[in-house]
Every structure is written in C-alpha cells, then in structure tokens.
Amino acid sequence: MPADVSKLSGGSLIIAWQLKDKNVLIVGGGEVAASRIENILIADARITLIAPRSGLHLQTKEYIGATSRITYHDRTFAGPEDLEGADMVLTAIDDVEKSREICAMSRERKIPTNVADIPPNCDFYFGSQVKRLPLQIMISTNGKGPRLAHLIRKKIEDSLPEGIENAIEKVGELRSKLRERAPGVGGDLSKKRMGWMTDVCNTWELEDLALLNETTIDKLLNEGWEKDRVPNAEEVIPKAKRAGQIQLPFSLLVPITVGFFVGVACTAVAVHRLGSRR
Ligand SMILES: C[C@@]1(CC(=O)O)C2=NC(=C\c3[nH]c(c(CCC(=O)O)c3CC(=O)O)Cc3[nH]c(c(CC(=O)O)c3CCC(=O)O)/C=C3\N/C(=C\2)[C@@H](CCC(=O)O)[C@]3(C)CC(=O)O)/[C@H]1CCC(=O)O
Ligand SMILES: NC(=O)c1ccc[n+]([C@@H]2O[C@H](COP(=O)([O-])OP(=O)(O)OC[C@H]3O[C@@H](n4cnc5c(N)ncnc54)[C@H](O)[C@@H]3O)[C@@H](O)[C@H]2O)c1
C-alpha cells in the first residue's frame, strides 16, 4: 500500500545549521539585528555588520565592542559588492524596498537569506529559541504566530528540569571518552558503542548524568563499557554526592509536558473545526 503523505506538508525543515567560521552579513543595527547577532555568535560564525552608527541599538553597540568576530561598517548597504564572500545574509532594516532589493541580489547569488518580517523574502525563518547550551530548542509556528512562538517558548522553559544542560554536557564528555577507547565509524564496534550509550542514557536519570566527572566517567567506562554492562548510578557516583543532589522529577515532567501540548493541540483543532462550521 502506498504511504499516506497527505499530511506531510505545510511545515519547514528544522535543522541545526553548522555555521562555524562562515561569514554572515547582517544589514541593520536595531533591536532585531541585535537578536540576530546573538544567534549567529552562538553558532561561532563571523559577522559583517553594515548599519549607520546613528541607528545602532545599545545591545548591538555592546556586541560590536565585545568581539573581533564582528566586522562593523558604519554606513548603509552599498550594493552587490557588500555580498562578496557572504555565506548567509540577514536584513533587519526599517526599509521594505531596500530589504527586497538586497534579498533579490543575494538570491541571484544563491546565498540563503532572511528578511526580518517579510516571509516571501525569507529562505528560512528565525524561531523562538530556548537557549540552555548545549541544548537549543527552536519553536516555529511556520509564520502563523510569532508571538505565540514566544509564549510557547516560555512554557517549555518553565518545564525543563534544572541542570539539564549539565547532563547533556557530561554525556558529551562520556561519549568522547568512549570513542577514545572504541574509535572508528561504522562496523560492529560502532554498533556496540551506540547500543551501550543508548542503554546508559535510557537507564540513568538526568540528574545522575549531571553529576559525572572525569573520575566517575572513567569508572563508568571501566565497570560498564569494558565489562559489557550498564552499572547503576549508585555503583558509580559516591553516595554523598547523590544525596546532595536535588531530586528532579524528570520522569514525571516529560509525560506532563507532552500531555499539556497534546491537550493544547486538540483544543486548537476543536476550536478551529467549530469556527469553520459557522
Ligand atoms: C520567533 C521570532 C524570532 C526572531 O525573530 O528572533 C520571530 N518573530 C518574533 C517576534 C515577533 N514578530 C512580530 C511580532 C508582533 C506580534 C505578531 O505579529 O505576532 C512579534 C512578537 C514580539 O516581538 O514579541 C511581527 C512579525 N513577524 C513576522 C511578521 C510578518 C508576517 O507575519 O507576515 C510580522 C508582522 C508584521 C506586521 O504585522 O506588519 C514574521 C516572522 N517572524 C518570525 C520570527 C518568523 C516566523 C516565526 C514563526 O514561524 O513562528 C517570520 C516569518 C520571519 C522572520 O522574521 O524570521 C520572534 C520572537 C522571539 C521570542 O521572543 O522568542
Ligand atoms: N522578526 C521579528 O522578530 C521582528 C520583530 C520586530 C520588528 N521586526 C522588523 O524588523 C525590522 C527591523 O526592526 P528593528 O526593531 O530592529 O528596527 P530599527 O528601526 O530599530 O532598526 C533598523 C536599523 O536598520 C538600519 N538601516 C536602515 N536602513 C539601512 C540600510 N539601507 N543599510 C543599513 N542599515 C540600515 C538603521 O540604521 C537601524 O539600525 C523592521 O522592519 C521591523 O518591522 C521584526
């Protein structure tokens, strides 16, 4: 039977774009540009910023002064020569015509472009973002309701357990130490490594993972990976350290959060159906 793809439409491709050391041109220096700068700096890219000094937002000024990763030009956009070497173009200016012009020029050069607030001139949209690095969560309403994206972000932020970023960081350290012991890509060793990592993540609570350090990571690898088993957190983390942690009910938070959003989605569908019957 052919797959039903009728509902696979109307969304975006949400990806974690790797921009390290790429060149991003930002045109405009207001509040929106400041938020674009923050997002691009997080991605370790270099920024060329073109905007007259007189229109710079305080936050933009602070970013310019704080890092050599921003090359600042105190002027308005000059023309196609400003697009030279750009891997991405973002405009955040209060001049719709100029924005459209810049967009046309960059699209001619096949440079991915976002024009703040003008969806037809965007090759990609920005979303509302939870930033608890290395965790990032992007919320997109696919252009339907940016303010709602902001409000949904707040709800997700409130539902995330404290210290979740530490757990992710420590899992990253564990994975890289495991790779030193079991290197390579593909093949049986790789399968075994992935299986073991999956079992550790499934078995351990986030708050226990967050307590890992260099010594306990080695212990987990010695007692676990080397012996083809997954030890309990109690075996690896000293009792006193576990006793000192705040017990976060992550196992409860996940179903509650998922339940909440399923509820919101069902209500929205019901309201929409009622509305369309009138
Ligand atoms: C999420 C966020 C990220 C960011 O920009 O960083 C973002 N807009 C945010 C806020 C916001 N923007 C607007 C309001 C006023 C209230 C309202 O209109 O709802 C507020 C609310 C506020 O400021 O709180 C006005 C607005 N925005 C767009 C239009 C044009 C249109 O709809 O046609 C208009 C109407 C202009 C008009 O009416 O004239 C278009 C876009 N805005 C997007 C992103 C993309 C789709 C995002 C998605 O799919 O959800 C998209 C398509 C393109 C883009 O810009 O990338 C950020 C919240 C960050 C946060 O706080 O967490
Ligand atoms: N997507 C969003 O989240 C969102 C939210 C609010 C506003 N906006 C829209 O984004 C745009 C920017 O918003 P803002 O609040 O940062 O505006 P702003 O007026 O504070 O800043 C505009 C900036 O663009 C600069 N500028 C104007 N023309 C220029 C040119 N030709 N070359 C270089 N720089 C130029 C100005 O000097 C100023 O720094 C507006 O169109 C606004 O409607 C988008």
From TrEMBL:
Pathway: Porphyrin-containing compound metabolism; siroheme biosynthesis; sirohydrochlorin from precorrin-2: step 1/1. Keywords: Membrane, NAD, Oxidoreductase, Porphyrin biosynthesis, Transmembrane, Transmembrane helix. GO terms for molecular function: ferrochelatase activity; precorrin-2 dehydrogenase activity. Residues 161-231 form the Siroheme biosynthesis protein Met8 C-terminal domain. This is precorrin-2 dehydrogenase. Residues 134-159 form the Siroheme synthase central domain. InterPro entries: Met8-like, Met8_C, NAD(P)-bd_dom_sf, Sirohaem_synthase_central, Sirohaem_synthase_N. It comes from Phanerochaete carnosa (strain HHB-10118-sp) (White-rot fungus). GO terms for biological process: siroheme biosynthetic process. The keyword Translocase does not apply. Pfam families: NAD_binding_7, Sirohm_synth_C, Sirohm_synth_M. It catalyses: precorrin-2 + NAD(+) = sirohydrochlorin + NADH + 2 H(+). Coiled coil: none annotated. PANTHER family: SIROHEME BIOSYNTHESIS PROTEIN MET8 (PTHR35330:SF1).
